Structures are given as C-alpha cells and as structure tokens.
Here is the input.
Amino acid sequence: MGKSRYQEELYRMIAPRMYGLCLKYANDKDDAKDIMQDGFIKVFQKIDQYSTKGSFEGWIRRIMINTALEKYRSQVTIYSLDERMPLSDEGVQSTVIENLSAEELLGLIRQLTPKYRMVFNLYAIEGYNHKEIGELLGISEGTSKSNLSRARLILQEKVKELYSITRDAK
Amino acid sequence: MEDRNNNMDKVFRDRLGDYHQQPPEEIWDGIKAGLGNKSRRKILIPLWQAAAGVALLITTGSLFYYFNRPGQVMVAEQLLLAPQNIQAPTQPRISASTEMQPQKTPVNNSAEKETSLLVISNNDRNKGLVETAIKSEKIIIADNTAQVISGDNNTETGLTTGFSAARMPESYLPVIQRDQITGKKKTYIASWEMLEASDVLMAETSKSKDRLLLTAQVSPTYSYRDIGNIDANQSSQLNQNESGRISYSGGLQFGYKTTKRLSIHAGLMYAQLAYNINQVGSYNTNGIATGNDVFQAPDKGNSVYAVRNSIGTISANSDKDFIIESNATPNNDKGLIDAVTNVIPPIFNTVGKIEQYFQYLEVPFLLRYRIIDRKLGVSLVSGVSTNILVGNHASLTIDNKTNDVGTSENVKNFNYMGNLGLGFDYILRKNLLFTVEPQFKYFLNSINQSSLVNRPYMLGMFTGVRFMW
Here is the structure.
C-alpha cells in the first residue's frame, strides 16, 4: 500500500468536516477549495511534526484555520467603508435566527467581510477568546472585541434584510 | 443585547460548529498534485528486483543470512531497500490485507514513484529500535503477528522473502497505541522516505541490542529440608521437632539473550537457610548431679552438650552455662543427651528452640525461557547453582533471649542446588523490567556428611529488576 493510499484514506475521513470548516471561513466556494487544498498539503507535509498533544483532528483543524487566516490576513486590518456605516441597535428576535438552516447561516457569515467573519467564527463558533484571536490575527484584544460587536450587528442587519422581518413583526 | 448576542452566537455555534459537506473530488486531485511536486525519495521494497550496488548486495546478503538462520525471529530493523531508479509499475505491492496476499494494484499516479509499504514489527522490544534506526520516520506498528510476508520468492536474485510483516490495520489512519516499551500512548503514522544504506547498517547493528541482561533480585525465603525416610522412627521424630524458617536471599545475575525468548544467566547470590529445632530444653548447670554419664559433656567442658538434629550435631561453645537437650535425639551416642530414656533432668528451666543458620554464596546458572512474550511476560526458569558455605551458626532462644550456641557439624562446604521457577516480568520502561519470580530451590546433594541424608530446599518469591542493553 502506498503512501498515497494512506493519505487518501485520511483525507476521505476528515474532508467533509474540514470542507465545512473552510466554507465557514471562505468568501466563496473557490476560496474554500483553495484553503482546503493548501491546508491538506500542509497537513501531509507536516505530519511528522504532529505530537500527541491534543487530538489529531484538532491539529488538522488548526492547520486549516491558519491556512484560512493566511488567505485573508492582508484584509484583516483593512479599514473598510463598512466601518462607517451606522447600524441600528434594533436586532431581530432570536426566534428568527433560530429558525434559519445551516446553509442560511453559512450564507449570512459569508456576507461578512473577512475581517469580521474571522473574528466572529473564531469567537462564536470555535470558542477562542479575544486574547487568542488577537494573537492569531495580529490585532489587539480591543480590536477583536470591537470587530466582534460589529460583526454581530452586521449579521443582525443581514438577517433583517434577507428575511424581511422587523422586530415588531410576529 | 447581551442575551441576544449570546443567543445568536449559540445558534451559529450549534448549527455550524460541526458543519460538514462533501468536498468536490477535484480538491483531492489538487492535493495530490500539490504533494507530488515535492521530490521525495521513496522506499522501494521490491524484493523481487535485483538490487544494484555492491554496498546493497553486501547489506542484503548479510541480512539474508540473518533471516534464514533457523528459528530466527524477524525483527523490525531488517529493511531492505533498492535504488530509486527501479520503476516497476506493475509489480505487486505488499498489501495489508488480512489474508496476507499480495494484491496487484495499478499505479494510480504517474507523477509518483511506486512506494510500497514496509511495516515490520513482531518484536515488541524492538519497536523502539525501529524508531531510532529510521531517522525521520514513524512507522505504523501494529500488533505483533509474525507472519511471513506474502511477497514473492525471488528466484532471480536468490533472495527469498526474508522478513515478516506485521498485520496491518486496514486503514492507515494514525494509530494511537500504547507504546509497547514505554507504555505511553504514541501515535504512529506512516510516512515514507528512502532509507540510506547507512540507516540499514545502523539497523543491522542495532539488532544486537537488548541482549545483555542484568538482574537484581531479593526474596524472603522459606527453607526446610527433605530427609527422606531411611529410618522411619528417626525421621518422624526429627520431622516432629524440626521446622523451617523464613530467611532471605538475593543477588545479581548477568544474562545474555540468545534468542528472542531464551536467555542464559549466571551470577552471584547470597542465600540463607534456616531451621528450627523445637522442643529444646535448657537447664541450669548449677547443682546438676554430674554423676550421671548422660550429663557429662563430651570433652568440651561440663556445661556443654551437643544437640543432634537432622543436619548434624551442633557443637556448642564451651563457655555456656546451660545444657540443652532435644527430644529428637533418640540415640545415646556419646556426647548426646538422651531425653527420652530414663534421665530426668534435675532442674528443668524452659523449653526453647535452636535456630540453625547456614549462609551460602550461591553461583547460579539459569535458563529463562519466555513462554509469554508481551509487556507482561511469563518465563520458565530453571538451572543449577553451586552453593558455597560461608556461614554456619546456631543459637538458642529461650525466654526471648538468644544465645549463640555454636555451629552445626559435618556440614559440607559445597553443595549443588537445582532451581525451578516461574518468572513474571513487566516492562516498566525501555530496557527496564520489573520481575517477580517465585522459585523453588532444592539441594541436589545432602547438606551434611553423615549417613542421614538431608537435602534442604527453599521457596522464595524473588522480586527484582532487570536491565537490558
């Protein structure tokens, strides 16, 4: 059995979850494909370095996330016009969000710019704290916090827009 | 606001946390392509190919010899390699099917050179060797199953498949196992780089590792003796009065592992045998009527008597002021007290016991054969020892006071002893075993030079450690 068969088996086992992860971080499917490919190439090249601390899948996840962050790193600190847009404080009822499907939620975070998407994913989904996010992205804790708030507000806005529901509607 | 945020986070986390989707196949193609670009040297294990290069031939020649010695156990380091320029897309690859059949699998990517799996270990102890012998490799090492790999007999080169392959797990995902040597969890992942000839030579020399053994053991022992049944009366009396004692033994053994399971050992131990003679009466000599022959000490002074026992007469020191007699002295030899017949001691103090001690330097020669060879191993132990008497004394204990009495006479200086035992050992870490070895040791010849044959024996539970290097 060749090495390639081993690699393929490993890939086949974890690819769906890793692709799901890439989709969360990427702007679109093309980017997701790039992140996935680059990430796995790194995984197989670095496999010697894997130590037994932590789970193997966790290690692969981290490589994937890092690959995704690499891709958008240059964009993370861009000050975009988004910043200037005022956002209303009104959000939507939680029930609206709760009724959205995974695909719809995915679509929502795709609408965030990479900067906000990274922070939101890392905080809300992966569970990193602001200090860790700061280290990963090369930003300050404060910036991470404000990016997160901003991301949340944008998401609320988008939900409203896309699902045409206001706070008062039932 | 806070709640809303947290709720929203939670929804995203719950729905997308484990989000997965089947990726398009082209992604995998892209990954393969990306990996194939790096030029790697690969191990080719086509035994059925003629190897080029004198160095390789020498290496393989010596390995071939090693493989084909009868009764040889295949060990992990024996990896063959072939030069890179051999391309044989149709060669059967060594596969890891459970039937151990070679399967012909087509080449799936022309950008890659063929690689074949070589995973060998059927020797737990050598797993560590494999890791060190192969520099950057981690190799999947499955449970040890020594099966001859179903590669082909190469009639062209005369090399038959000389190595065994462990049965591979079906999937080559990282296997987290307890490392057989250290007991720690380790991850084994396959990766492939060609070994240089030097790696093989290093592996070659490392096969002689772990053959030198040093064992240190101690044990409490129970010793007693076998006196046969020559004279029924005598024997029964002696048996009635005497008993064994707990004593101790310990020492060092050097060993050499000749095969995977068999090792020979020689060493130096110290063993003490001890016995009790019970029902010994002591008397104050003051005021004893010495008119009676029986109470006259043989040539040693008035207050000294000898106690006969199954080992030999104990000649007591001459400066003691007590008389000892034992019920186990039915004969009325000169110098012995007959406590059974008509002598009534004038003053009977107390009954005590005599302890006999014999200290030996033991030179054992042992064979240990591992019948179960795993992390917890079980061995059969047998051998013979030469015992050299280095100490011999007896003491009398009466009223919790112990007095040194003298020595047992007629004890041989040299004895031969047979050993039989069962060894249990447990790998603590690399090169270090913890052993527990119940043993039975039996004198092959009599301990004394009298007509009453007395063969002591010892039962011990030897605990110790064994170093291997």
The CA atoms of residues 4 and 194 of chain B lie 58 Å apart. Chain B touches chain A through 56 residues (CB under 8 Å). Chain B is about 15% helix and 35% strand.
